[in-house]
User: Fold this.
Amino acid sequence: MLYLGGAVGTVLGGSLANRWDRVAVVRWSYLITVVAVAGVVFVPGPGFYLFVALTSVGLYIPFSLQVTLAQDYLPTRIGTASGITLGLTVSIGGLVSPLIGSVADATSLQLALAPLILMPALSWLLFRTLPEPGLLLQKTCC
Assistant:
């Protein structure tokens, strides 16, 4: 489910970004992902798998878009922008995973995953402050 959702999300993210602003696509993706992650945490039974798939799609839609946005925000430091975007994301996830596992062992998986609902919500809030890079250049240019 995760890998299939990731493939769908990656392709869908590119298609949606060709139609609308990348920042808008990322914002909507994170907003939908809040609901999807909540479904993973709180929906029992077979419905759980639908929310796992939606979470995977919702998290992969912005993945490549964030890399290209970072490169557009830092056009003279493309390697740094993509390295920070990818490296920091993977590193933070790797550091936090054992903590989530420890909480799950001590309490329950549901309690350990519940705070993760806030992560896409926080990302959505932060992306509300970002302009599309092309629009930023138009405003400062002429």
Observations:
- The chain has a mean pLDDT of 87.
- The chain has one domain: 2-131.
- The first helix runs from residue 2 to 19.
